[in-house]
Amino acid sequence: MDDAGYERALAAHGDLVFGYSLRMLRDPEDARDVAQEAWMRLWQHRHRVEEAAARAYVMTCAHRLCLDRLRARRTRPRAPEEALASLPGNPASGPERRAAGREAARALEAALARLSPRDRALVLLRDVHGLPYREIAAALGIDREGTLKAALFRARERLRSRLAAAGVTP
Amino acid sequence: MTRAPRPAGCDAVRRLLHESLERELSPGERARLDAHLAACSRCRELAADLPALLAALGSLPRPAMPPGLHAAIRARTLAAPRARFGRLALLAAAALVAMALGLWPALHPPRPAPSRAAAAARQVRLALAITGRGLAVAGERGLALSVGDAVGPALARGSRAALAAVLEPPLTLATGLVRPASPRPAGRPREKEMTP
Questions:
Q1: B111: distance to nearest CA of chain A, Å?
Q2: Is the pLDDT reported for residue A64 higher than 80?
């Protein structure tokens, strides 16, 4: 991947890397640091990464960096709703979010925050950001697609259970 | 509230339920799923909730990068000074060092080792020059301190006559300096001659 390819990848996936890191860590400063470091790593290895694989590479870096930070904290994510409330969102999703209802969205964010990092990563990567299974498997280090799907389905059901426990129906 | 026990095969059918949200099931898979849902209330609830859950997840806002982050990443990557120049400078420095090391022996050829007699003569000359006196008045102690090689101890033990014999003519004492002594004949027993 040349410099122009890197520039295109940064423009196309910059928000994805930051948004994923933010929901994993629930801390804007940590998310910013992780995003910078992930893009730095892609930059350092750009000569052996095809442009088509840039997203998978940088998301793999971001995921691992997030896990490192979470391990260092040894606590569950903090301030889940407040961390997201003040951030600028994707304009295209604004009306959808309003339709879903602010309270329901906050409950969903809170339930996501209380999932294990692995479950949260699965749901975020697939159901929030819509990444293909192949890239999710690479980011999470899962070899078989069947294993990945089974883990994702269980994670969805745990999320639903947490919402139900909080009295929220999706 | 108690729930009805799950019929057997919930896990396998739930997988089909999730898959049905992403692809079209085969007629056989669809029939199996429908038959299970008809008999399992818990899976029916899940089937009712899952599409709404996925829709809610898909409609969550996707936070944009905060202001300045894009520029900060660019500053550390695309806009950063390239290391290429640094590598070239390093290579040039290494080449210069290698050249200098290669040229050193040519610029500083090793000096031939002086012969033992010449070395002894230089030492004696030095001693005499330091004392400023001729061999006739130079004491054994003075010579012993001055001559550093194997001749030294022999000289130190010898008399003035023996010293003169070792150094041998031609000696020029007028200036207080000693001309280099001629090499002694091979096999000449030095110690014997020096013993008074």
A1: 53
A2: yes
Of A11, A43, A77, the residue that ends a domain is: A77
Expressed as residue numbers, the domain containing B51 is 10-57
- What's the token pair of residue B156? 């130190």
Asked whether the beta carbons of residue A128 and residue B72 sit closer than 8 angstroms, the reply is no
Q: How far apart are CA A109 and CA B25, in angstroms?
A: 31
Task: Give pTM, 2 decimals.
Answer: 0.62
| Residue B131 is assigned to a structural domain of this protein | yes
The answer to whether the Cβ–Cβ distance between B62 and A7 falls below 8 Å is: no
pLDDT digits (tens, 9 = 90+) for A18-36: 999 999 999 999 999 999 9
HSE (side-chain half, CA atoms, 13 Å) at A93? 20
Q: Is residue A2 part of a domain?
A: yes
A88 vs B61: CA distance, rounded Å: 9
Residue of B23, B44, B50, B53 for testing the chain A interface, max A β-carbons within 10 Å: B53
Classify residue B165: in a domain, yes or no: yes
Band of the pLDDT at B190, cuts 50, 70, 90? very low
End-to-end CA distance of chain B: 128
